[in-house]
């Protein structure tokens, strides 16, 4: 059964599973409207559903998000929208499972890594391109050190290094990589089945305790403030360069 989605995001119900498919062109960039829809879905899911299965239409998983705001107020709204979805992926009412069949960059990495379970194709690549634009990915840095050692978090964000699905699993960025690209869908299906075989109440308590023990929410406000300030700085630099031409 189909749910009402938004441009670039298809939503379907398959029994107790909501399948959310990002389908927005070659880069699968997420819009603020898509982020808001996912946040609302996780906060108030359809009756009888237990799992959100997040996937994407080929060729990539998600190479980031739209950057449309041009002033401080708009930039703050965008940053807070991203943080709200991050929180919903961690603490919403649905268990979350990501199927990463293609490349993920920037905010797209967070969409996968912040799910309760995330599985990647071995050839999928993961990277954070923000540093190449002289921008610290503060929304990412609010959660990244909770899933991998600090030195690896620094290397990935400070150099923009690209890693494949197997290395992402080794570092803890995703739960596991499938043995081959063709076997990813089957792996995800079996893991969702395993979740559905177990009691919902106990799983909710497990999530609550894990979130409480590694809660980056105290950094969320700092991440928003830094992202807004840095984005405004880059816009000022860009405007001054245009004025010099």
Residue stretches low in confidence (pLDDT < 50, at least 5 long) are none
Q: What's the count of strands? A: 10
Describe the sheet with the most strands.
7 strands, mixed
Shape: globular
Along the chain, the helix and strand elements come as EEEHEHEEHEEHHEHEHHH
Helix content: 40-55%
Residue-averaged pLDDT, rounded? 90
- Strand arrangement across the biggest beta sheet: 1-2-3-4-5-7-10
Radius of gyration: 18 Å
Q: Report the structural category.
A: alpha/beta
Which strand-content bin applies to the residues? 15-25%
- Please count the helical segments: 9
**CATH architecture field:** Alpha-Beta Complex
User: Can you tell me the CATH topology?
Assistant: 2-enoyl-CoA Hydratase, Chain A, domain 1
CATH class: Alpha Beta
Q: Please tell me the total number of domains.
A: 1
Distance between the termini: 55 Å
The H-level CATH homologous superfamily, spelled out, is 2-enoyl-CoA Hydratase, Chain A, domain 1
């Amino acid at each position: 059964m189909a749910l009402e989605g938004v441009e670039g995001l298809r939503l379907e119900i398959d029994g107790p599973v909501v399948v959310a498919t990002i389908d927005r062109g070659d880069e699968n960039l997420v819009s603020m409207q898509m982020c808001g829809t996912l946040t609302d879905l996780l906060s108030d899911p359809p009756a009888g559903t237990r799992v959100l299965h997040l996937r994407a239409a080929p060729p990539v998983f998600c190479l980031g998000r739209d950057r449309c705001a041009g002033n401080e107020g708009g930039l703050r709204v965008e940053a807070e929208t991203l943080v709200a979805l991050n929180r919903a992926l961690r603490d919403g009412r649905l268990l979350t499972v990501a199927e990463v069949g293609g490349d993920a960059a920037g905010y797209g990495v967070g969409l996968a890594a912040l799910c309760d379970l995330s599985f990647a194709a071995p050839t999928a690549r993961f990277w954070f391109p923000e540093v190449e634009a002289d921008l610290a990915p503060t929304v990412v840095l609010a959660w990244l050190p909770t899933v991998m050692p600090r030195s690896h978090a620094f290397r990935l964000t400070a150099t923009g290094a690209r890693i494949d699905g197997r290395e992402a699993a080794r570092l803890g960025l995703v739960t596991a990589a499938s043995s081959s690209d063709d076997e990813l869908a089957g792996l995800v299906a079996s893991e969702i089945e395993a979740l559905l075989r177990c009691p919902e109440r106990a799983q909710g308590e497990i999530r609550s305790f894990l979130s409480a023990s590694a809660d980056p929410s105290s950094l969320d406000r700092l991440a928003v403030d830094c992202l807004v300030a840095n984005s405004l700085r880059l816009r000022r630099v860009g405007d001054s360069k245009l004025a010099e031409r």
